[in-house]
């Protein structure tokens, strides 16, 4: 890695856990992510990729000593850009990263325009849970009238639960309903997002009153 950095004048930060990688990406701006699948298992990798991908609009490359077709298939479904073997020469790896960086530089992400002229009454688009208000039209959440910053997937998960208030939803149902994936074989992404929602919305995330776990079945919102 250091040789790759010195040749291309790149600054590379290294970390050893999925949690620390997510924390670093949340705290700083990175141009790309190179993920070592030989040091972090596939299930954790998939959960982390699905957590990062909606917010990380940069190349994600996974490298592994000997990728299997199953690993590659699941990684691509989790929207990684490339799965590379570790025997790839450094100069080829550098050229590939440079090409991916160039490609992402060509992409401009623009928010969809909001047409206020035909806006429906806001209360038709709001769902209230105690002191939380979920506004599906404005894609916003408030708690005690104060805005709560959620990621895109956190908002989608909360909205999905709100649409099924009082119903017990399994992790597989949530994974399929929110992410649209039913073959990744990993439901840890659901647990991670529920934990984040509790941290942001519940008064006591260790003793939630609304985002409840139904042991052995899944989750429900009351």
Can you walk me through this structure?
The protein has 222 residues and is an alpha/beta fold. It has two domains: 2-105, Response regulator (Rossmann fold), CATH 3.40.50; 123-221, Winged helix-like DNA-binding domain superfamily/Winged helix DNA-binding domain (Arc Repressor Mutant, subunit A). 40% of the residues lie in helices and 16% in strands. The protein contains eight helices and nine strands. It has a four-stranded antiparallel beta sheet, with helices on one face. Strands 1-2-3 form a three-stranded parallel beta sheet, with helices on one face. Helix 3 (42-52) crosses helix 8 (188-201), helix 6 packs across helix 7 (171-179) and helix 6 (152-163) packs across helix 8 (188-201). The longest helix is centred in the middle third of the chain and has 16 residues, at 90-105. It is elongated, with a radius of gyration of 20 Å. The relative contact order is 0.11. Mean pLDDT is 83; it is low at 109-122.
Characteristic terms for this protein:
three-stranded parallel beta sheet; alpha/beta; Rossmann fold; 222 residues; 2 domains; 8 helices; transcription regulation; Two-component system response regulator; Arc Repressor Mutant, subunit A; two-component regulatory system; transcription cis-regulatory region binding
End-to-end Cα distance: 49 Å
CATH class membership of the largest domain: Alpha Beta
Number of helices: 8
> What is the CATH superfamily of the largest domain?
Response regulator
Arrangement of strands in the largest sheet = 4-5-6-7
Query: Overall mean pLDDT score?
Result: 83
Based on Cα principal axes, name the global outline. elongated
Return the string of H and E elements: HHEHEHEHEEEEHHHEE
Organism: Limosilactobacillus gastricus DSM 16045
Keywords: Activator, DNA-binding, Phosphoprotein, Transcription, Transcription regulation, Two-component regulatory system
Pfam family, one: Trans_reg_C
Domain Response regulatory: 1-101
